[in-house]
Design brief:
- There is one protein chain.
- By secondary structure, this protein is α+β, with helices and mostly antiparallel strands.
- The protein folds into 3 domains: 5-181, Formiminotransferase-cyclodeaminase, Chain B, domain 1; 186-350, 2-Layer Sandwich (Alpha-Beta Plaits), CATH 3.30.70.670; 358-563, Formiminotetrahydrofolate cyclodeaminase monomer, up-and-down helical bundle (Four Helix Bundle (Hemerythrin (Met), subunit A)), CATH 1.20.120.680.
- Helix content is 52%, strand content 13%.
- The chain contains 19 helices and 13 strands.
- It has helices at residues 18-29, 56-73, 102-120, 139-142, 150-155, 169-174, 197-207, 269-282, 298-311, 320-331, 341-344, 346-350, 363-371, 379-402, 411-445, 453-482, 484-494, 500-525, 531-563, and strands at residues 5-8, 11-12, 35-42, 47-54, 89-98, 124-128, 177-181, 186-192, 212-213, 234-235, 242-249, 254-261, 287-293.
- Strands 1, 2, 3, 4, 5, 6 and 7 form a 7-stranded mixed β-sheet that branches. A 4-stranded antiparallel β-sheet has the order 11-12-8-13. A two-stranded antiparallel sheet has the order 9-10.
- A hairpin with a 4-residue loop joins strand 3 (35-42) and strand 4 (47-54).
- Helix 14 (379-402) packs antiparallel against helix 15 (411-445).
Length: 564
């Protein structure tokens, strides 16, 4: 299951007083579920860029708390710095990381901006993807005139999107804020086997969206051509949503193409890499590797790995760890220094302090934990794990079929099924821990007070909610495990004949998963007071169980016919 995550990168107008900065970042860290990734103060700019990440609701709450604190501890009447700014919290961008669209994130930013204006009385301009006016997509337009120009802007009728166009005592202190949503920006450097900044710049101009100025006679040294408005005539580069320059890095004694990818949907990292390689090769230069500056979402590396595997006509149905390794090697991320995904991938950083999961245990440790006197993990988690093993066997047969000698024309067909198997396996592994978590929610209810009538009512409602969850989780296990059968059936019919028995075993454990989870649905549904809801869940589960029995028999018949 893909976790919904967004990043927030607020810029606060204080970069010198670390006590003030800490007061703001403490508010962020107080919010449960949010991980503070980076604090980057600048004395000259008198500005601090903070990066934190978490689930959308928690990030929005942390952002509001930080803006509120910044309004209390920063007085814009006394602020000076080299960077343009118009408020204590100058810009407040929300960035989708996983499981959420840019459009959904933009709506969150609008709601956050409105709340800031309503509750804190700070004028807010909606910018980037949250902008209501096309011209306000550009941050520079929202910040025109900076803090010092706010009063005149308001008087001229240039009202904010949220809040009043009044430069009162409160606004004099806080200034205004630009709140919006933007896509994830990847900062990346491409290492070149040259020391020439000029050559690196030439490659950068070849690929960046802006391109290079057109010169008379299309020469390299001719006069730059101007249009009728006196603006430079540009030859566009080949990569949309990319800004780039060339420079020399004294630390490594090499030139690099330094790039910001501002639209990773239009130009993914791996496409930008390939295009820089092409442009470099055209100039007799080779890209030796890539350096990612800052952090990236996991999907960036997974998409890159799948792209390069497809170029090799190899199956993309590999584990996440294998895909990350492929990405590191294909992009040359370890060219200059070791690349540690746990320090560079946002999702991995989010999990660095997480409680150890059952699925992270060894097989022996998981079995011993199950065998202990603790009631969890129990049959529900084991059922989910059985389903994951069934999906794993189907995936294995698909991968072996994709790579089978003489079946080269079928590699993509089986690769797609291997990717499906990986997806099902990941969902079922997630449910291993979800089932135990659902059981623990019921146990937590029993520790709630039940002295007064009100406490008894609260406790009863909590127990019903927890029981419903404990019924729905194994039902979800049944649903996902049922999807394993078409995979193993097709692998038994069309897959590598040497692995047909593996497909059969996949069907057997998938059926065990369905039937085991069915037992959990039945025992937990018996505790639901809403009998109509219970009967509905039981009817759905019963139908899945019957279909699983039929599927299993079909697969085993195919397997037996092939091995007898």
């Amino acid at each position: 299951m893909q976790k919904r995550l967004i990043e927030c990168v607020p810029n606060f107008s204080e970069g010198r007083n670390m006590d003030v900065i800490k007061e703001i970042t403490d508010e962020i860290e107080k919010t449960e579920g949010v991980v503070l990734l980076d604090i980057d103060p600048g004395a000259t700019t008198n500005r601090t860029v903070v990066t934190f990440v978490g689930e959308p609701e928690t990030v929005v709450e942390a952002a509001f708390s930080a803006v509120k604190k910044a309004a209390e501890v920063i007085d814009m009447r006394h602020h000076t710095g080299a960077h343009p700014r118009m408020g204590a919290t100058d810009v407040l961008p929300l960035v989708p990381v996983s499981g959420i669209t840019l459009e959904e994130t933009a709506e969150l930013a609008r709601k956050l901006g409105k709340r800031i204006a309503d509750e804190l009385k700070i004028p807010v301009y909606a910018y980037e993807s949250s902008a209501f006016k096309p011209e306000r997509k550009n941050l520079a337009v929202c910040r025109k005139g900076e803090y010092e120009g706010l009063a005149k802007r308001f008087e001229a009728g240039d009202a904010p999107d949220f809040g009043q166009a009044v430069f009162n005592q409160n606004v004099a202190r806080t200034g205004a804020t630009a709140c919006g949503a933007r896509d994830f920006l990847i900062a990346v450097n491409y290492n070149l086997n040259t020391t020439s900044t000029r050559r690196a710049n030439a490659i950068a101009f070849d690929v960046r969206e802006k391109g290079r100025p057109r010169r008379e006679d299309n020469s390299l040294t001719g006069k730059i051509m101007l249009d009728k408005n006196g603006e430079q005539v540009m030859i566009p580069g080949t990569l949309k949503g990319c800004k780039a320059i060339g420079w020399f890095i004294d630390e490594f004694k090499i030139a690099q193409v330094s790039m910001n990818i501002t639209d990773i949907k239009t130009t993914p990292l791996h496409i930008a890499f390939q295009e820089v390689c092409r442009a470099a090769q055209a100039r007799g230069i080779r890209v030796t590797g890539t350096e990612i500056v800052g952090l990236v979402p996991k999907s960036v590396l997974l998409d890159a790995a799948k792209y390069f595997l497809e170029q090799q006509q190899r199956s993309i149905g590999l584990s996440e760890e294998e895909l990350i390794w492929i990405a590191v090697k294909s992009l040359g991320l370890d060219d200059l220094k070791p690349f540690n995904p746990k320090e560079k991938v946002i999702e991995y950083l989010m999990n660095r302090d997480s409680k150890k999961l059952l699925v992270d245990m060894t097989c022996k440790a998981f079995a011993e934990e199950t065998a202990s006197e603790s009631p969890a993990p129990g049959g529900g988690s084991i059922s989910a794990y059985a389903g994951a093993l069934g999906a794993a066997l189907g995936t294995m047969v698909a991968n072996l079929s994709s790579h089978k000698a003489g079946w080269d024309d079928k590699w993509e067909y089986f690769s797609n099924y291997a990717a499906l198997g990986q997806k099902l396996m990941a969902q079922l592994l997630y449910l291993v821990d979800e089932d135990t978590a659902a059981f623990n929610k019921i146990m937590d209810v029993f520790s709630m007070p039940k002295t007064t009538e009100q406490e008894k009512t609260v406790r009863s409602k909590a127990l019903q909610k927890a029981t419903l969850c404990a019924t729905q989780v194994p039902l979800q296990t049944m649903k996902v495990s049922l999807e394993v059968f078409p995979l193993v059936k097709l692998m038994a019919q069309e897959g590598n004949p040497n692995s047909v028995s593996d497909a059969g075993v996949g069907a057997l454990v998938a059926r065990a998963s369905v039937q085991g989870a069915f037992l959990n649905v039945k025992i937990n549904a018996s505790g639901l007071k809403d009998r109509a809801e219970a009967d509905k869940l039981l009817a759905e589960a019963s139908d899945i169980a019957q279909r699983a029995d039929i599927f299993e028999k079909e697969v085993i018949e195919i397997v037996n016919a092939k091995i007898q």
